[in-house]
Amino acid sequence: MDVTEKINTSWGWTGIEAVEVVRENDFGNLLIRDSSSRFWRLCPEELECELVAANKQQFDELLSDKEFLIDWHMTALVEVAKKTLGELDEGRKYYLVIPGSLGGEYDISNIKTITLDELISLSGSLAHQIKDLPPGAKVKLNVVKKN
Questions:
Q1: Is position 119 within any domain?
Q2: I need a labelling partner for 32 at 20 to 30 A (CA). Which of 9, 50, 62, 129 fits?
Q3: 142 lies in a domain?
Q4: Exposed/middle/buried for 99, CB within 10 Å: 0-12, 13-18, 19+?
Q5: What is the number of domains present in the chain?
Q6: Ranges of residues in the chain whose predicted pLDDT is under 70
Q7: How would DSSP label each residue in 76-89?
Q8: Does 136 map to a domain?
Q9: Which of 91, 64, 92, 94 is nearest to 77 (CA)?
Q10: Nearest 10 degrees: CA dihedral of 63, 83, 97, 117?
Q11: For residue 84, what pLDDT is reported?
Q12: In what order do the strands lie in the sheet with 48-53?
């Protein structure tokens, strides 16, 4: 399954119909063009997949926005992750073990590596499960070890 199929399977409930990943960062954030030539940002650490530009012109403007670029590159966090966990192998990303939207800290103690496919699936599944909860709702995570 290619990455756009994985996005559509894991995040399609948001309304996205991914056709191309146009940018990605070291934390698995993706900028995605959809079937209507709109642009979305998948932000796994916040369990979000949101429309960020309605067309190419808006997308180009977004890519020149300094605040967006600071948030996008996550430079300080990437540097800490690289120093502690090492360079990423092909197909792997850093990620917050407990997503920020569930109270996870943006701290090296909460950062590991994962394949991009697993990150898309995991974040999409968690986001779908909590999408109807009110802000501040308590969430209990049950972790099951793979054999």
A1: yes
A2: 129
A3: no
A4: buried
A5: 1
A6: 143, 146-147
A7: HHHHHHHHHH-SPP
A8: no
A9: 94
A10: 60
A11: 98
A12: 18-24, 30-34, 39-43, 48-53
